[in-house]
Every structure is written in C-alpha cells, then in structure tokens.
Design a protein that fits this description.
Elements (H helix, E strand, L loop, with lengths): L10 H13 L4 H7 L4 H4 L3 E2 L7 E2 L22 H35 L11 H10 L9 H17 L13 H10 L6 H11 L8 H31 L5 E5 L9 E6 L4 H9 L3 H9 L5 E6 H11 L3 E3 L4 H6 L3 E6 L8 H7 L3 E4 L10 E2 L7 H15 L14 E5 L3 H9 L7 H8 L5 E5 L11 H12 L2 E5 L1 H9 L7 H5 L2 H10 L4 E3 L6 H14 L11 E5 L5 H12 L3 E4 L9 H14 L4 E3 L3 H19 L12 H9 L1
Parallel strand pairs: 4-5, 4-7, 5-6, 7-8, 8-9, 11-12, 11-14, 12-13, 14-15, 15-16
Antiparallel strand pairs: 1-2, 3-10
Helix pairs in contact: 4-6, 4-8, 4-9, 4-23, 5-6, 5-9, 6-9, 8-9, 9-22, 9-23, 10-15, 18-25
Length: 653
Amino acid sequence: MADLEKKSIDPATIKMLKKAADDGCETIFDRAEAMKPCPIGAEGSCCKNCAMGPCRVPAPKKKEGVPPKERMGLCGATAETIAARNFARMVAAGTASHSDHARGIAEVFLATAKGKMPEFSIKDEQKLYQVAMDLDIEIADRSVQDIAVDVGRKALEEFGRQEGELLFIKRAPAKRQELWRKLGVVPRGIDREVVELMHRTHMGVDQDYQSLLLSAARCALADGWGGSMISTDLQDILFGNPVPVLGQINLGVLKKDQINVVVHGHEPLLPEVLVAVVNEPEIQKAALATGAKGINLVGMCCSANEILMRHGVPVAGNFLQQELAIVTGAVDAMVVDVQCEMQSLAQVAKCYHTKLITTSPKAKIEGAMHIEFDEHRAGAVARKILAEAIGNYKNRKSNVEIPEETTDQVVGFSYETINYLLGGVFRASYRPLNDNIINGRIRGIAGVVGCNNARVTHDDPNLTLIKELIKNDVIVLVTGCAAMTCGKAGLLTPEAAKLYAGEGLASVCEAVGIPPVLHMGACVDNSRILMAATAVVKAGGLGDDISDLPAAGAALEWMSEKAVAIGHYFVASGVYTVFGVTWPTSGSEEVTKLLFEEYENVFKGKWGFEADPIEAARKMIEHIDKKRKALGIDKARERVLFDMDKRREIDAA
C-alpha cells in the first residue's frame, strides 16, 4: 500500500489499483513505472519532421573553460528551431482539438436554429442575445429563431475566415487588443491559423524561433478567444448556462445494484441526450427486468463536467481514474467520444465485462464496439447505447468492488453566475470582488486548470498548490481534471472556506456563500476564466488590462497538447502561467528564456515551470504581490464608516 500511495493521494484510486493488481489487470500506473520518458524528447530536442531524422540535439554538457559546441540537425536546424517547432506543433494540435469540437457544436447549433434537430433547443435566450450582440447581429424586433440562425452562421464563418479579425477578439480589454495588433498576432480565422502554423513548422520553412513562437501565440489566441469561446457560448445557449448545483464525485458514485453507464470524453451532445432519455419508462422497465434497481448514469473527465454543471449528474473521476472505473467490475458500458480516452480501455474492459462503446467517427478504438452518434437521430442512438448496457448487466462477474468514497461538491460557476452572486439581480457586478481585492481581503486570483499526469502522484501537485493558494487568501478558479481533484478533496463547498482558506478570503466566501475554489467547467471552458478576468478589468480599480491584475495561472499536472495551447493563450493574454511535471523547451536555453523572461516585456505575461507545488504557489503569490504593489494596493486598507460630517467634507472637496 505504501508504494500505491506514491501513485495517488486519492483513497478510492489506491483501492482500485490494488484490485487491478490482484485481478492481473495492467493500468497506466503500471506502464508509467515500467516505461521511462525519453529525456531528449521530453526537453523538446528531438526533430522528426522529415525522413532524414529523427535528429537529436540535446543541450551540450558545459565544461569550464570550453565553449559548448552547438549541435544541429542534418538540415542545420538548431536546438532553438527544433524546440520552437515542437512547441508550436503542440499549440496547433491543441487548438485544432478544441476548435474541431467547437465546429461540431456550431453545426448542431445552426441546424437546431433552423428546426432540423428537434431533440435540441435554445434553452438560454438571454445568453443568445448577448452572444448575438458580440457578433454584431441585430436583435431588436427579431424572433429567437432568426437571431439563432444568424449566430450559428457567423460562428461557423469564424473557422474559415481568411482575413480580418476573429469577432470575439473585441471582448478583450482595449489595451490588450492594441498590443495584439501591434505584435501582429490577432487571429484571422481559426482554421487558417492552425494550417499556417503547421506549414511554418514543416522542414525548411520558418527557422527563426522568435517568429515561430509569435505565430504559435496567434494560433493559441484563435483557441482561447475563438474556438473554445465559441463552443462554451453555444453549448450554454443550447443546454443552459450553468448555475450552482450540488453533485457528488469519486468512484463511490457507481452502484452495485444498478446498471452503470459511464460517459467519458469532451463533447456534451450525446451525454445531454442520454440524460434526457435515461428515465423514459420503457428504458427503466427494461432495466428493472434484468434484476437491477435502475440505471445509474455517471460522468468521467470533461463530459462529466458538462452534465454535472447542468444536471447534477455524479462524477466517477478524472483522467487517471478512467481505467479504474472499469476495474470496479461494476461498469456495464463506458461510452466515449473524443479526447483523453486511453486506448488501453479496450484491454482493461477485457479483464471484466464492460462494453467499451466509441461514438465519434473521428475516434475509434480497436476492440471497442462502435455506435456512431448521429445528431439527427440523437434519441435513437442514445436508446441503443442504453440497451447495450442493459443487456450486458447479466454478464457481470463476481469480482465487483466499488470504493465507498464520495464527496459532495457545488459546481457551475460561469462568469455570468459569479457576476450575479456578487451583485444580485439588480446590481450584478464584479465590483464587490474588485473591492475585496483592493482592500486586501482577497490577495488575488489564480486559475488552476489541466490534466492528470501519471509521471507524478495523481492529484497531489494540483491539490497541494490550490490549498496553499487559498490559505494565502488567493481565490482559485478551476476547470477540467483539476476541478475534479478539488471536488474529491472537499474544496468545492462553501464550508471549505472556513476549513482551508485564509481569514480574508474566508470572510468574503462566507458573506457571499461561495466556496474558496470555483468550478467553472470543462477544459474547453477556460474561456470563462478569460471572460471573468476581462470583467474584473472592466469593473475598474485594478488597471486597464488583464496583465495588470493580481492574477496567475497554473497546470501542474498537464499532459496534453491542449494544455500547451491553453497555457500559451493565457500567456499571450497577459497572465503568468506555471506548468509542472516537465517543460517541452528545456533543451533550448534561448527559447526557454524567451518564454520565461522576455515575454513579460512582449506580452506582459510569461511562462514558468515549477514541479514543486509549494514553490509554484510561492512564485504565483510573489507575482500577485508584485502586481498589487504596481497597483498601489500592496497594503491592506481598513474599512472606514463615514459619519455625515466626513461625507460633507468629501462632497465639499
């Protein structure tokens, strides 16, 4: 057990790792122990962009008095070019992943607006109006349907736009827009930026690392202020803008006496339909006929975040728990779409009885059943999937073991909801947040996002970092798997403020009735954090750009290319952003110096790397304090109750 505790701090995960070992079932934790990462690839010093390679150019060993010999690839590509190319390709892949997701949502949105998909509808008209205005669409004296059709068309045009600027760029603070235009990094079209960046990284094209990284910034901004923002907004209009809701998390949400269906992935279309049809009388009758007490629909990864925020559907776990849900022996079907599904799920499923069902034409897994999701037949597909799970219940084996661990959590803090909670119906505003940052009760804001990574102890870096931040009065916004970590640890309830937060932050949380850590959604919803940061700027008193805010970001357990794209658009938006585990340009001092130091002068934001979560928290707090000092709010201000004489003095002045 002591060895297992080095793999995860989550008790449910540890129990299932022991069970997997007893059952002879290999998991990602076993493979991480057996297979060490390539040190040259990890530092970004390996180029395989042509058939003359792979060329390895690790950093030369320094010897006193001997100048280092510069290594280069066969074509002459330097370590700087290779590291920048590799980094840029990660940004391009991450942007493509988020934005292809967004394109699918936009297509369904437009078809729904035209009345061609009756199983979907416009659920948040108020957000529709706001998005329409941001897209320069007239809303006066027009029907919801006509407005929605125009929104869908304009959203789709953003992907193929060839010139001009993405329309959501104007949502950013004016000063930030001016800086982007000066640097030439305002995205023109989402697809154009991805294609151009891939072209630039082809052998023999862009061979200036500074040019490559500026282009990577433009591509990343097409994600954060383009694809991701479009998907979040359109999903909110279709399925409802999240509001605070109570839910449960961890493997204990699985039920031994029910048919367990786990939805896993990132696209909310099919999960939404499954939620809608799972309680239909015919389906429930079929489930009861098997001897089960019903169907238990639960989520995994970011599909879980989507249906948790809108329906309170319980969450089985985050990225590194996906195999372990099957290891319980209680999962009758795991339904996956795109992004972050391990191919090993098919092998783990063979150890038990679970049916692994792929649903996207873009993401098939050898050995899995494929039931393709057709948005025009959404209900029929969902019912077929549930029928497969119901029919599989009888095949359960005797070795069912479900950990008892579950935790309550309050989620659903969209930036609009935070606005309402702080100011109420009639005076919704971020001003109370700004006032409490100015008076020192809240030291600053941190966004902690991203994945899990089997190269570090599961959940530990993110949780340790976040606890240290809130202890020091930094309010934390979380998304994705990092949000699930907080849920399992009990940080996503209002009561957590008194237990874990510093005195100032706790007092604000208790007054408003919110947790010290706010769950803002799936990993594609990091655009909510951008919008929240912009709202803070516009509320006044804390500068005129995102870079002026006492704020920082982190992804200490990152593992995917999406995380690099997210981090780069936060840096390009003016945020100090710290990653852990490993850093993909460490093979080049020049590239790393540009990202870690010089970008603070270029973008007013910069990258950082720190594997130790306590040290990462210290660096983030140091940055927050530096910003407070620059704003002249580095000393806490006491609240003063003015009598009438004092008020008259102010009026006279």
